[in-house]
Amino acid sequence: MPHEDGAAYFPLVATVSLGAPIVLDLYEKVPGGGVTRENNDTEREKEDQDQDEDEDEDGDDARIRARDLDSMTDAWRGEPTFRILQERRSLLVTRGSIYRDFLHGIAERERDQGLDANSICNWDLLREPERFQCGWYERETRISLTYRDVLRVAKLGNTMRFLR
Known about the structure:
Elements: E1 9-19, E2 22-28, H1 40-54, H2 59-73, E3 82-86, E4 90-95, H3 96-101, E5 102-105, E6 111-113, E7 136-138, E8 142-150, H4 154-159
Antiparallel strand pairs: 1-4, 1-8, 2-3, 2-5, 6-7
Helix pairs in contact: 1-2
């Protein structure tokens, strides 16, 4: 699900990808959090139907989770604005407007498709573009090391005194 790292981190994140490649989708934030997806009604109907099937004696908890999901999905557009193909052994640094003005996420799927110079914004920078010439890649295990500069750690340090 698309998300942002938030204000607790300095607006720079470095990610080292090991193992298999992956496509990172970037979504432009919708001003005011409004929904712009054309198929939003259909998706909400499906979520409501799934919600009805999942309800048990804790139906209120399930409705709260669905409402929270709605508020998160309302902040992004349905199609990614940019797609970045992170090759194995690659470093991706996000900062500036990409960090502030976009949500990022990795779609839950078994295969990344539509891989070409028109859909992948860093295609010209790939070390092995021939590996993706068929236009798709079957996902494999990927390990991601993410480095962030946390701005406020004093409170966390004080609450962890019990570890000493």
